[in-house]
Amino acid sequence: MKPKKILSVLMAAGLVFTVVGCSSSSNSTSQNSNQPADYVAGVSLDKPIKVDKEAGTITVLTKINGKYFDEATRHNSVEQSGTNGAKSIFTAFAKPEEFYNALIEIGAKPGNNMTANNATTTHVEGTPIKAEITWNGAGKKYDINEVVKDSNGKQIDFRFGGNLKNALDKNTGCLSCLDSCPVGIISNTTYTYGAVETRKEVKFSGNEDVLPEDGTYAAIIYSIKK
């Protein structure tokens, strides 16, 4: 074999080895970086809530409840052990008091203007709260209005209502409600209490075209709306 041809064969062999070597290394790294299904955006069943004061965010682990792709609900996210634990689009694993304290920690101020007596005529007040959702493989964070459908096409506008005493007394587990609420830690000021279940003014459901399948773990990232 001529010297030039030998050199070409050796160079080609070296290139193949390099590509194979790189590919093997990449696959190994990918496998080593795999996380359990419940580990999403830095939270997990072992640590279901994370506060980042510097970033001004609260991340809460949840699970998609596919029942509410087809049925309406006024419950956005409820802690699993609460009396309303199975009634929300996002089943949460952090308790209302933990969520309340985390909101205080990032500088949010509760409105505390809701009572059982004024609920049907009062819009919740307090610091405006942004909610975004992500899950493994999502590739981005989705705004709450991209993943929860309002039948009237209005925007969900969460406010830090507060309601800590009511939340503890009632034990509903409600973190976030889709109409103004005297029990939920945050709720949607767009509608007054009773708009969904009593007066049938609006229907809320999970957006199946965007959200992953029933039972998928997801993280909701809350922050003060700028």
From TrEMBL:
Record keyword Signal present: yes
Domain of life: Bacteria
Residue intervals of the 4Fe-4S ferredoxin-type domain: 161-191
Signal peptide: 1-21
Cross-referenced InterPro entries: 4Fe4S_Fe-S-bd, YdjY-like
Keywords of the record: Signal
Protein name, as recorded: 4Fe-4S ferredoxin-type domain-containing protein
Originating species: Gemella haemolysans ATCC 10379
